[in-house]
Amino acid sequence: MSAAEVKNLPQNLPSGASDMAHIVLTFDNNKLASALYGQFDENLARLEQKLGVDIRSRGNQLTIKGSASAAEQARRALDNLYGILQKGADIGQSDVDGAVRMAIAADDQLTLPTLERKGKVSAAQISTRKKTIYARSLNQDAYMRALERSELVFGIGPAGTGKTFLAVAHATMLLERGMVERIVLSRPAVEAGERLGFLPGDMKEKVDPYLRPLYDALYEMMPADKVERAIAAEVIEIAPLAFMRGRTLAHSAVILDEAQNTTPMQMKMFLTRLGENSRMIVTGDPTQIDLPQNTKSGLVEALRILDGVTGMVTVRFNEGDVVRHPLVAEIVKAYDRDGKLARGLGAEG
């Protein structure tokens, strides 16, 4: 049996209201239905707010009223969320927001690399022993599918879109399944020049502040004690980009974060570290380059030079993919508008 039984009821609607729909969902598990609705039906209220529909609950049955398209989007979102609950995971407001994004995009959803149309919402997922992560936007879905299928993936876009988090999750999954022997995580430290000698402390103390986001993502995927043991055993290596020179990284999941702050030579050096049976993921935001003035970004150059190279996939995120606090998406939009005005493109540029 599917997550819900759907009944489209006779309308008897007045003239001009033929685009309205009335959908009834009946769930087969009362406990999961309660979790789906949320405390005081807060998840249903969020769906109503996001999609402009009216949702009424009665036991394990929901009634959705609204425009035909919005009601169908609500049905898709609820079906998606119920499926997550059936797999034993919990859902929160961010999951509801993600389900709404996926439901709205369902008609146009593409999968890589065949770009085939998908008729039903089926969000990509990454499963580690600690948690399962589901795509919360169309571009996250494309990114996660690209990570499954391609040996070199570029994730490009603003902060808060999940580029680094999903890359680390995928690398963790590959390690746990024995598909790679180690994880290598890297970032340019202290902008692109990596002037570590001017900082106090030993090498670990110098670089750790710049690599902290990678540690944070790892702790989300694995218990802290396992992360520490893996680092001690060098199964997980977290190092600044300068440490990659002269190495060949075989049987590894390799991630370069904040790649916009590499120089072209550094980027070329990193990309040519790719060894046998390895996966490489490069993430960055070309709008946040901290390089000295008149210094080209290695990320921007690589995207230009490697365009069309077989085996490489680039997924571009935008403010609509921001999965942090809703204000983050608005902040990204505001800065983007200001940047366009500063470049003389105007509000419509």
List the helices and strands and how they pair.
Layout: E1 4-8, E2 20-27, H1 30-37, H2 42-51, E3 54-58, E4 61-67, H3 68-86, H4 93-105, E5 110-111, E6 116-117, E7 125-127, E8 132-134, H5 138-149, E9 152-156, H6 163-176, E10 182-187, H7 190-194, H8 203-221, H9 224-232, E11 236-240, E12 252-256, H10 264-271, E13 279-284, H11 298-305, E14 312-316, H12 326-342
Parallel strand pairs: 9-13, 9-14, 10-11, 10-12, 12-13
Antiparallel strand pairs: 1-2, 2-4, 3-4, 5-6, 7-8
Helix pairs in contact: 1-3, 2-4, 3-4, 5-6, 6-8, 10-11
Bulk shape: globular
* Strand order, sheet with most strands: 11-10-12-13-9-14
Mean residue pLDDT? 81
Put simply, the count of helices is 12
**Share of β-strand residues:** 15-25%
Supply the helix-strand structural class.
alpha/beta
N-to-C SSE series? EEHHEEHHEEEEHEHEHHHEEHEHEH
Biggest sheet architecture: 6 strands, parallel
Strands, count: 14
Quaternary structure annotation: single chain
Share of helix among residues?
Answer: 40-55%
Unreliable parts: 9-16, 109-120, 190-194
Q: From the alpha-carbon coordinates, what is the Rg to the nearest angstrom?
A: 23 Å
Terminus-to-terminus distance: 50 Å
